[in-house]
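Thread: quick sanity check before group meeting

JM: Hey all, I'm pulling together slides for Thursday and realized we never actually wrote out the predicted structure for the chain we discussed last week. Dropping the sequence here so it's in one place. If anyone has concerns about the input, flag it before I start.
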Amino acid sequence: QDQDTLKVSSWFQLRPPQLRRFRGIHENTSNNNGTIPSHDSDGVLTRGHVEELIEHLRNQKAVHKKYAFKLLIAAKKIFGAMENIVTLPVGSGSVITVCGDTHGQYYDLLNIFKLNGMPSSENPYLFNGDFVDRGSFSVEVILTLLALKIHDPNCMHLTRGNHESESMNKIYGFEGEVKAKHGERLFKSFSELFRSMPLAYVLDGTPVSGGKRALVLHGGLFSRDGVMLEDLQKLDRFREPDTGLMAEMLWSDPRKENGWGTSKRGIGASFGPDVTKRFLDANNLELVVRSHELKDEGYEIEADGRLITVFSAPNYCDQMGNSGAYIRFKSDMKPDISLFKAVPHPDVKPMAYVSNAGLMGLG
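JM (edit): ok, ran it. Output follows.
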């Protein structure tokens, strides 16, 4: 056996009966408030197993592809049972951390956990899309996030970004990385998994006196007024995000001027602060949290404090020099923003799995 494959002493090799149960342990377990009960002590993926996986990937060792398939199958069942827009209660004394794009920067992801604590039901995270592409440790990022989701679905929440799509993965490196590390079949399974991911979350602090609601989605808002959350719940999300409201959710950007403008990306909308305020007021929301754009300080606040961009890939592509950020929210939805710098990583350059690699835009 290749010494760079996960050791036989690990969970992945020693628990085949549990791995067979792994395929269905969370089926039909979601409930209306977006939380999912964790499996019991006889469940498959313990905290120790996740920590073992993280250390293995940190040391640039591979997971056998059949166990990667198991992770994707289990995660897809969890996501597939969720609504397009998942409501996540933020109760009294609770805090949730929202992170933006990570783009395959695995060692910066682990640094977030070092700085802010490992994910748990008491310290939950919401990662707001674009887990993959550009950075050359995208497989490590997504497998770690999925393992955490499967271990305790209430500790890790994931939204789909514009890079969780087959067309982007073919251009910006994830397809090449998956094929190099695990083969073509696994890439097709990732594409199916991405199509099952929720499109947005509503962080709901209203059960607490003075609590507010915030919408978290990857890109932004819409090319017209009158869009309601109920409309978004009716979308068919199990497809590529190339048209309609779904494309706008994953691709749109705010602008400083009121009204609408032409998107700089050729897809999605460019929407002003007045558009943001009308949408939020119509849907009883305090603010929108989005990602999708590099920010020098890791974040930017616009629309009189009612729109926040958060970006969590510091020194993006090893050359932009930006900070990363993450935001902690309590029930009042007032942002507690933390900044962090990039940490060293093994000598594998960004875009290593792309022919003729270049930045090719920063979307």
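AS: nice. The longest helix spans residues 65-80. The two ends are 40 Å apart (CA to CA).
JM: adding both to the slides.
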